[in-house]
Amino acid sequence: MITNFRILIGASTLKAGGQIKSLLLQKGFNVDGICTSGNLLIRKCRTTKPQLVILNYDLSDINGAEVAKIICGEKISKVILLCTMQQYGFVIPWEKKVGLLCMQKPIKPSEFIKLVYDVSNEISKNLVSNKQINRGRNIEDKKIIDKAKQILMVKYNLLEDEAYRKIQKDSMDNKTSMLQLAKKIISENK
Asked: How many CB atoms lie within 10 A of CB 58?
């Protein structure tokens, strides 16, 4: 299961990224690459959509906290930010807001690997749950959700997967089913 779990690393140097990569590879994780530039890391995340991004606070161009905020804000993937105690003070205000996970340096390999395992298990459970939910829908329900998706794509200039995630997130936030929310979107935009 973890071999299909793709990870991208952001580090200040290739050597620092290589140490993280080596630790992950020893435990069977698949590392897609290492980026030392925050801007390059963001672009690579947008194109490859890894399940997890692990990055240091210090990068060559912008700090890891800004990169994490963008990746989490766009809901591209989960992010683990490695930072010092002082850097963590800057991250606290929006850590929970954007769903960022932080680990303070110096990292202990056993705790780090446990956190990566925990995140990979959480993501895997969510993927299985989403597949079961999608299998349980009949064709008519899927058509209604697709129609609502199309409305959101036009109205907010979203990609198809972004529109789907918006319906999914809004349904969770409002404690209602995706089908009920889709029907509401359609009725409000006639």
From this structure: 19
